[in-house]
Design brief:
Length: 161
């Protein structure tokens, strides 16, 4: 089974599963807007591979293996969504793009994005360059960088060397 399919389904089961109650085929089918029979087939395969416990009319619950994959996928998804929104991307678009990106990025790339988002989240104020980028994304006009900001950047760059 494809990695993307595994991650999408275990993430969906994780999101729908509340208080360890089983998630039913119809719940997943409705959320994904697909045929319940298709969901049943994939749930059976996920069960065979050890990601979920599945009974045809009893629903699905994540195994520890499935929960681990779901949590890691959810973290990548949420971080990528936040990253894209930091860049000025609309939330709905960011969500959709994150859903695709979470499966294809190299682990090193993902780790760097996670660190980038953490750095921005722990800033006392929004960095001026990020505000500048968002304004450029929004308007399509790239304003000249203020000379005082260039000086600050250069001073900071000399300290880091």
């Amino acid at each position: 089974m494809r990695k993307k399919t595994i991650e999408d389904y275990v993430e969906m089961v994780h999101d729908l599963q509340q208080e360890k109650k089983p998630v039913h085929t119809n719940d997943i089918a409705a959320a994904l807007q697909i045929n319940p029979a298709s969901v049943s087939e994939i749930l059976q395969k996920l069960s065979e591979e050890g990601y979920i416990k599945y009974q045809k009319y009893g629903g699905a619950t994540l195994t520890s293996k499935g929960k681990k994959v779901a949590i890691a996928t959810k973290k990548r998804h949420d971080t990528l969504t936040e990253f894209l929104m930091l860049l000025g991307i609309d939330k709905n678009i960011a969500e959709k793009d994150a859903c695709e990106m979470e499966h294809i990025l190299h682990a090193d790339t993902m780790e760097t994005i996670i660190k980038f988002v953490e750095v921005i989240k722990h800033c006392e104020a929004t960095p001026f360059w990020l505000k500048r980028l968002k304004e450029y994304v929004k308007t399509g006009k790239l304003a000249k960088c203020p000379s005082k900001m260039i000086e600050v950047c250069l001073q900071h760059a000399r300290k880091i060397k």
